Amino acid sequence: MKLLFRVTFLMALMAFRPGENKGRIFLIGDSTMADKRPADAPETGLGMVLPNFFNPTVEVQNHAVNGRSTRSFRTLGHWQKVQNELRPGDWVLMQFGHNDQKIEDTARYAAPQTDYRKNLIRYVEENTDASQAKKEVEFGANVLSSVVSKK
């Protein structure tokens, strides 16, 4: 239900954008968001169906990758690729969490009250006003996704 609310809210925001530019939404995250191969059906990532909720004036780019965490998505260069394409007016929808909890995997693990929270704040800060970023993450203690407008 929360996801449906967020999608509806995002669609409403996009409706008020100037008509000359196509709205763009960048999806980042793990397998919950990632595209799946047809052979993996019926497994479906959120990013595969999200474009169906928008009209053709909104472009959805799915950069989510199976197995990524807030740490590994950045260290493996996926976030840099997204940042290179972002421009004012773009949106980033992120979904991370279950890979961050894998304490035995040092390439992905992020302690929930420290590194995980800091990683989420960093993603938001890099694309919005820093003081607002901390507020957004604090209000979403169990952050599933955050919508961020590029400066």
What does this structure look like?
37% of the residues lie in helices and 13% in strands. It is α/β, with parallel strands linked by helices and 151 residues long. It has one domain: Rossmann fold (3-Layer(aba) Sandwich). Strands 2-1-3-4 form a 4-stranded mixed sheet, with helices on both faces. Helix 2 (46-49) links the parallel strand 1 (23-29) and strand 2. Helix 5 (112-125) crosses helix 6 (130-139). The chain is globular and about 40 Å long. It starts with a helix and ends with a strand. 29% of the residues are buried. Mean pLDDT is 79; it is low at 133-151. This is SGNH/GDSL hydrolase family protein.
SSE topology:
Elements: H1 2-15, E1 23-29, H2 46-49, E2 58-62, H3 70-75, H4 78-85, E3 91-95, H5 112-125, H6 130-139, E4 147-149
Parallel strand pairs: 1-2, 1-3
Antiparallel strand pairs: 3-4
Helix pairs in contact: 5-6
